[in-house]
Amino acid sequence: MNIASKTPGPAAAHAFQLGLRAGAIFGIAVIATLYWFGIIDLLLAGYALLLLFPVYLIFVAAALSVWLGYDKDATALRPVYKQN
To answer: Which helix (H) or strand (E) holds 24?
Structure first.
């Protein structure tokens, strides 16, 4: 059975941008809240912002891309030929 696939449209692109911004604001808010209440110190907050936060954003982007239909599997690959 061949399933027709749709490509994500402009609404999905807008939702991706909005979701990524919301995820970034949420991540910074969590780190700031943990620092504000004294659960983590300044060094650990800086470590989280500089090293852990970019990794977190990659996971957010990956989750959003799957949810919005940007993910591709092996069937989307095309062979590459060199023409002489």
So the answer is: helix 10-36
Gap between the Cα atoms of 20 and 58, Å rounded: 9
**Structure tokens, 81:** 């030929």
Q: How many CB atoms lie within 10 A of CB 30?
A: 13
**Would you state the torsion angle of the CA atoms of residues 41, 43, 48, 54, taken in this order, to the nearest 10 degrees?**
150
Give the mean pLDDT of 26-31. Answer: 97
* H helix count then E strand count, the chain: 3, 0
Exposed/middle/buried for 24, CB within 10 Å: 0-12, 13-18, 19+?
middle
pLDDT tier for residue 79 given thresholds of 50, 70 and 90: confident
